[in-house]
């Protein structure tokens, strides 16, 4: 919640965690609010101190340097992610509209490492290196 980012003890609370999990939602809104409150810097600090970061959909996309997803008008848009992981990531790649939009966008970013996942897949990174692509059933 937005009010939690204003908590006087938020830094201590975040840094005391072992895992921070971010759910899905609107990527642009998520990043905008984190930056508005300075929470993005706290997440980076937590990562540097060894806190495990995880997420699904927008909550996974945010860790990458570039994000491309729907905006509030349901058009696709590019955002700067937190940059903890190089490249970009497209969740829900099994959705034909998203796949088409992402493929068109990534053609204009030939040097950007792109990861695409269908809904039953996930990625595991360690020290910014991909160590596994995991299929769930």
Number of strands: 8
Helix percentage range: 25-40%
Kindly name the structural category: alpha/beta
**Shape by Cα distribution:** globular
Strand sequence of the main sheet, in spatial order? 4-3-5-6
**Low-pLDDT sequence parts:** none
Strand content: 25-35%
Major sheet: 4 strands, mixed
* Number of DSSP helical runs: 5
Mean pLDDT: 94
Q: H/E order of the elements?
A: HEHHEHEEEHEEE
Determine Rg (CA atoms, Å).
Answer: 15 Å
Distance between the termini: 31 Å
Characteristics:
137 residues, alpha/beta, 4-stranded mixed β-sheet, two-stranded parallel ribbon, 5 helices, globular
Topology, please?
Blueprint: H1 10-15, E1 19-22, H2 27-37, H3 39-48, E2 52-55, H4 58-61, E3 64-70, E4 76-80, E5 85-90, H5 96-107, E6 114-116, E7 121-126, E8 129-135
Parallel strand pairs: 1-2, 3-5, 5-6
Antiparallel strand pairs: 3-4, 7-8
Explain how this protein is built.
This protein has 137 residues and is of the alpha/beta class. Helices cover 31% and strands 31% of the residues. The protein has 5 helices and 8 strands, in the order H-E-H-H-E-H-E-E-E-H-E-E-E. The protein has helices at 10-15, 27-37, 39-48, 58-61, 96-107, and strands at residues 19-22, 52-55, 64-70, 76-80, 85-90, 114-116, 121-126, 129-135. The strands form 3 sheets. Strands 4-3-5-6 form a 4-stranded mixed sheet, with helices on both faces. It has a two-stranded parallel ribbon with strand order 1-2. Strand 3 (64-70) and strand 4 (76-80) form a beta hairpin. The longest helix is centred in the last third of the chain and has 12 residues, at 96-107. The N and C termini lie far apart (31 Å). The model has no long low-confidence stretch (mean pLDDT 94).
